[in-house]
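Support request, please re-run this one:
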Amino acid sequence: MKVLCVIDMQEDFISGSLCAPKAREILPAVKAKLDRSRQKGDTVIFTRDTHGEDYLQTQEGQKLPVVHCVKGSAGWEISKELDTENCKIIDKPAFGSWELAEYIAALDGVDEVELVGLCTDICVISNAILIKARLPEVRVCVDSACCAGVSVKSHRDALIAMARCQIEIR
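Re-run finished. Output below.
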């Protein structure tokens, strides 16, 4: 069984306060991959970066003082161009989600996990490594054409780092 993880395809990362330069460009490819995965009967999971009103007082907020993805705000929402119906959505308070890795581990018969989304160099890499650590014998893949980083260079660097951790880059 294959699992597709759509990481943080949220308005604040696509067109809002922390817009990744290539985020809007990958949206059609992510939508097409999501549609194909649904047609094949793959399990689809979305993550949502989720912060509170106190974000600037958190450790992350001190290091990245740009308010984003505040629960309930328009920027917190997953892009309306992506259909989340009948999908598990995991709200995550940090870059990586142990809950996501555990949720996948609890599914029967998972032999492949593919990640797409934002940002390659922060949340995609964090979740890919957590999933690979939790499920070392499961094929973990990242579709580079369906990811965008904070910059083109950091996107490429993250792909190289993931490949070194035995995460397949497509």
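The chain has a mean pLDDT of 97. Helices lie at 11-14, 23-40, 59-63, 98-106, 120-134, 152-164.
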